[in-house]
Amino acid sequence: MWPTIIVATIVAAILLAIIYSSIKNRRSGKTSCSSGSCCGCAASSLCHGQGPDEQTKT
């Protein structure tokens, strides 16, 4: 029983650290895009509020 509790606590701590860093990065304006260009991404309108065609004009 103790090993299960310990593993669950470690997994929960890792998930909380990932969520915290994601929120921190979003608040500071950093994106999760590794290439820096979202023009080919299908979900770019969700991230930036505009379509891929509109992003290439700027």
Features:
mainly alpha; elongated; single chain; 0% strand; 58 residues
Blueprint (SSEs and pairs):
Elements lengths: L1 H26 L16 H5 L3 H5 L2
Characterise the protein shown here:
This protein has helices at 2-27, 44-48, 52-56. By secondary structure, the chain is mainly alpha-helical. The protein has a domain at 1-30. The chain is elongated and about 50 Å long. The chain starts with a helix and ends with a helix.
Task: Summarize the entry for a quick read.
The chain is built from three helices and no strands. With 58 residues, the protein is mainly alpha-helical.
**Beta-strand residue fraction:** under 5%
> What structural class do the secondary elements suggest?
mainly alpha
Outline, from the CA principal axes?
A: elongated
Tell me the Rg in angstroms.
Answer: 18 Å
Termini separation comes to 57 Å
Taking all residues together, what is the mean pLDDT? 76
